[in-house]
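> @MW can you paste both from yesterday?
MW: sure, first one:
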Amino acid sequence: MRAPNKEQVNVADDPQRLGCVTASRVHDLMSKTKTGYSKTREDYMRELVGQRLTGMREKQFTSAAMQRGIDLEPEAKEVYEARTGLFVEDPPFMLHPKILMFGASPDGLIELDGDLMGLLEIKCMGQKNHVDFMLAKRIPIRYQRQMIAQCSCTGARIVDFAAFNPDFPQGCDFVVQRFEPSEEQIIELEEEVILFLEELDKMETQLRNLKNGK
């Protein structure tokens, strides 16, 4: 049985994440309605401003589905290694080399042919969503954006998206789909992140000036 990597278990508590845009939340800042950006963008910005002003993250609610994913991730990595022959390395939180306050924590790093690095993203879905994914054979946009952001931050250009539900029979329990974002997708996402961070910085400055009586 593969033991959870200590760094990976605590990656959510990495102090480098404080006030940063993270790949798993990029969908929140990019989501739009017919009239413009959705409310999730504003909510996420205020959440990050709060982290920057207080120097701490509020305790996050962990649903049963989220806990299931955490518990099953080591087993999913074992299955991936056994069925693909690729070794999975547990990475730390990885900051973008050029865009400050932007980072990602992929579920795994994989070494492909030669020196080519790939990523592994695992989703342990409930029965309905697992069936939906098998039938549609399309990765939901939220997860696509997460993986594009991961590629932007790490320099990887290939991500294996793995849907794992051990309750299903073998052959249906673990489904891997390779995702390769285009340069255009990466550039578009980076532009959205930069714009968001600029607005976030302005909001932070405004609130710090209030604190200082300006």
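MW: second:
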Amino acid sequence: MCSLVQKYNVPGPRYTSYPTVPFWDVNTFSGKKWEETVKKSFHASNSLTGISLYIHLPFCENMCTFCGCHKRITKRHDVELPYIKSILKEWSLYRAMFDEKPVIKELHLGGGTPTFFSPEHLVFLIEGILRHADKAPDAEFSFEGHPNNTTKEHLQALYEVGFRRVSFGVQDYNETVQKAIHRIQPFDNVKNVTDWASEIGYTSISHDIIFGLPHQKLEHVINTIEKTKELKPDRIAFYSYAHVPWLAGNGQRGYNEEDLPAGDEKRKQYELGKELLLKFGYHEIGMDHFALETDSLYQAMEKGSLHRNFMGYTSFNTHLMVGLGASSISDSWFGFAQNVKNVEEYQNLVENDIIP
């Protein structure tokens, strides 16, 4: 077992697509081919299953050094509205490919920090998307919320435009670990947003917990999961930290590999974490998720309808997923495409009527 742990203790993909991004064939790809596959997928599936939308909101006020996502660090909130208008313009470019009104089955706001944006601007975005689409009766709208800046107004505003699922990034409650990853986040902040979401009526509340973080010890993982038990979120994403400091802009510079748990220690963190989650009434879902029996993810697993896409595990299996925003990834069932990652380049392309 030790040799296996050492062999596979390397950064790897989360398999939200297969083949994974580094192995995509970019040489034969073209905008024309992409448009053809989008049209084909939409025509075949829209009336049957609807489509999924992923919207990437890349802005964050602070750099969290554990994060490998594409983001833009800024405290300037005047970037919000121009970026949202670019997303709505990109949506119009996709709608021009469709031969009927799109039916949205699934919509997710990811980041970045979606709650960097004001509640008013988020509502403006969602209303702009829905103005030219039908919402499926059983649609699932979800977003990622940062416990430090998600307000009750955010939760209420998004609830009123159809959101019923929210995910909060917890990572770890130990202060030493939080300082290392530049994410000081008291338990009370997480409790507040979790309680607010429950009071407002969200039907699925999720917490993200990461193991293998710098300076993280076994007792820290135990403490984090025991505190999480007090709040009883409906589902938990429990996954490994990916140490990829060579990727530009991810900020993984405040610590080095000596500060990370060794492979065997990291394995113990996962095994004990899993044991505790099962003990506390959660069921293991696939590779990195746990859910209560009352959650739709567990029910989908029991019915055999669980699916995995670029948004992670989902209870729906749509054939077309359109990614909007800088760095977003789309899946047409016949191929994948990723938008340019630079925000300004993305906006310039969209303004010139080019799928970015």
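> thanks! The first strand starts at residue 51 and ends at 57.
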